[in-house]
Design goal:
Layout: E1 2-15, E2 18-23, E3 26-32, H1 41-51, E4 55-56, E5 62-64, E6 72-77, H2 99-117, E7 122-123, E8 131-145
Parallel strand pairs: 3-6, 6-7
Antiparallel strand pairs: 1-2, 1-3, 1-8, 4-5
Amino acid sequence: MRLLVQRVKEAHVSVNEKVCGKINHGLLLYLGIHKDDTPTKTDWLINKLIGLRIFCDEEGQMNHDIQQAQGDVLLISQFTLYGDVQSGRRPGFTEAALPEPAFLLYEQFISELKEALGRPVQTGVFGALMEVSSINDGPVTFLLER
């Protein structure tokens, strides 16, 4: 699994010109699921994500995690995180999970993240053509992989 983490001032996702997920200050997450990923990988990613101290404290230092910052979370499925562009000009996606197993892991990730945060998580629509808008804060961007 790959999780692209962006600290944002705000973000929203739309499908067919309808907003389906929207946050203010918090994290915009893009989740890519590998063809060999299993349900056991979600725990590590969620614990790592929740513990990341990437929000500024009163002195401007990155010392607060998502809970301390009282930030929101918007999660988007993103199979292209496993796109291979090493050869040729067209990306290959043979490393990305097929839609059905990817959907199950995506849903599990959402459920476990909600439980760990103790509050709702905004999402896009799995497999849909989405438009994502965000105002990055920093910018602060990290790639977590397990």
